[in-house]
Amino acid sequence: MNRKIRLTKTEDFKRVRRLGYSYAHPLVVLINQPNGCTKTRFGIIAGKSIGNAVRRNRRKRQIREILRNASPSIQPGWDIIILARKPSAKATYGDLRTAINQLLGHADLLIKIDANENLS
């Protein structure tokens, strides 16, 4: 995932967590808020409940890859935080991908494709 579309500032994380909408899954929590820009930015949080630094960083890399693959189908103009929960430490990559995709759908962040457009 390109660094230009990452949330990096503490103020941005605090703003999204304070003012955003949250959607929970047993493995991850998705928090989103409109950012008024043309890009969607992502932030990933993996606390010490995930494990040591090696495990936390591995989980963050996996979440980053899932979001990179899903980003073309995500609506622009949002700040999104993915918070990894403790059970995600033992979850498979596929389970994590499914959980994130479900939360993106619940949050209405996925671009809706009109079936009639594909017929033309």
Major sheet: arrangement of strands: 1-2-4-3
Query: What integer is the average pLDDT?
Result: 90
State the shape. globular
Please tally the β strands and state the result.
4
Using only C-alpha atoms, the radius of gyration works out to: 15 Å
Unreliable stretches (pLDDT < 50, length at least 5) are none
Number of helical regions:
4
Structural class: alpha+beta
Helix-strand pattern, N to C? Answer: HEEEHEHH
Strand content: 15-25%
Between the first and last Cα atoms, what is the distance in angstroms? 33 Å
Major β-sheet, in short? 4 strands, mixed
Share of helical residues: 25-40%
Overview of the structural elements:
- The protein has 120 residues and is α+β, with helices and mostly antiparallel strands.
- The chain is built from four helices and four strands; from the N terminus they run αβββαβαα.
- It has helices at residues 10-19, 53-70, 93-106, 115-119, and strands spanning 21-24, 28-34, 41-46, 78-84.
- It has a four-stranded mixed beta sheet, with helices on both faces.
- Strand 3, helix 2 and strand 4 form a beta-alpha-beta unit.
- The protein is globular and about 40 Å long.
- The protein starts with 9 loop residues before the first helix and ends with a helix.
Strand and helix layout:
Elements: H1 10-19, E1 21-24, E2 28-34, E3 41-46, H2 53-70, E4 78-84, H3 93-106, H4 115-119
Helix pairs in contact: 2-3
Which properties best describe this structure?
4-stranded mixed β-sheet, 120 residues, 4 helices
